[in-house]
## 1
Amino acid sequence: GENVEQHPSTLSVQEGDSAVIKCTYSDSASNYFPWYKQELGKRPQLIIDIRSNVGEKKDQRIAVTLNKTAKHFSLHITETQPEDSAVYFCAAPLTGTASKLTFGTGTRLQVTL
Amino acid sequence: DAGVIQSPRHEVTEMGQEVTLRCKPISGHNSLFWYRQTMMRGLELLIYFNNNVPIDDSGMPEDRFSAKMPNASFSTLKIQPSEPRDSAVYFCASIGTGSAGELFFGEGSRLTVL
């Protein structure tokens, strides 16, 4: 099955700085890579995703990059704000089951003033 | 649509009791997933259904856990008998063929087994 590793487990940045979270996956056939944000006591919600036919995707202050050769993808948050504080999860699907996602262990991001 | 609806939101029970968690997926979504979240193990997929049929239950930890989906709008996850190590937040999520891959989660059911 798919194995997804995520680093770091915790990340503290000052407001306005950038944050980068990295994930590696094991299944070279995986073709869909979403990122979910989970605020304290809330449900995970999709914030951005990327498919294997592109190398980068941006949505305002967040971006995701994908390196299929190295089997890793990263989440980049620029100009961080206190409301970015949350746990972020990467995920990748099991081959042949596009919707069966394996999640990374999560990164707790703390944006300090 | 109201989104994925789960009940109860919180449950506190004693070891040995039966626990039933319920989920109503988003109307029109044909795949439903049960995840368990703990600090130690993160988000674990327990079981998922496609068109009401269980496809993969390899994540179900023990025979004490069972899940059903009698129709397209309702699923249950049952634990019998419950144990303290079952304490976790249980999320139900659904996805439709037209969702472009986005998994929609319910608010979760926080279970505490004393």
Note: Residues 31 and 84 of chain A are 27 Å apart (CA to CA).
## 2
Amino acid sequence: EADIYQTPRYLVIGTGKKITLECSQTMGHDKMYWYQQDPGMELHLIHYSYGVNSTEKGDLSSESTVSRIRTEHFPLTLESARPSHTSQYLCASSGEGGSGNIQYFGAGTRLSVL
Amino acid sequence: KNQVEQSPQSLIILEGKNCTLQCNYTVSPFSNLRWYKQDTGRGPVSLTIMTFSENTKSNGRYTATLDADTKQSSLHITASQLSDSASYICVVSDRGSTLGRLYFGRGTQLTVWP
């Protein structure tokens, strides 16, 4: 069982609200990732971080932002949520060793914007 | 464009039966290939990871094969159980960047009936 946690698990909010999805890991991993996944579709990387104070945009353009002030914490923020943001958001982390290391995923946050 | 294609899209089998899931990829330069299991509403969990030089790897009732020449992989599940019902995702990593970018297939949705 991976020690990576996401909260909330489910979130239903109205358009225009600001939200923050939390992700924390206790494995001491430097690399962390945010993916977006729609039903029946592949995961798309939207943000990643190599370590503290490092954040990069992923393959899929996203209006969300991330921060990495502490190694264990990698929150994702939407300043003004829209129905198009409705999706599942998965956080992951991996240790040293480049692409050879396994990414451990959290349980995900299912976001619905009304 | 780097792609990972999985087949079939969905599969229904009876408990106790075996099945094989397929994955074809075009990712280059290739680093490794992983199979993940994703239960409904959860994050993916790693089953196997194989590098270029590995042809087969087992994890309990799961056996993955890799043919790096034809860029094909398969995941064989033996003596299926109801708990095997999940989406099985093929993920290929390249070695063209420090991050080790991951390319995700859309998954095969497996349903095991009693």
Note: Chain B touches chain A at residues 4, 31-32, 34, 36, 41-46, 49, 51, 89, 93-95, 98-102, 104-107, 109 (CB under 8 Å).
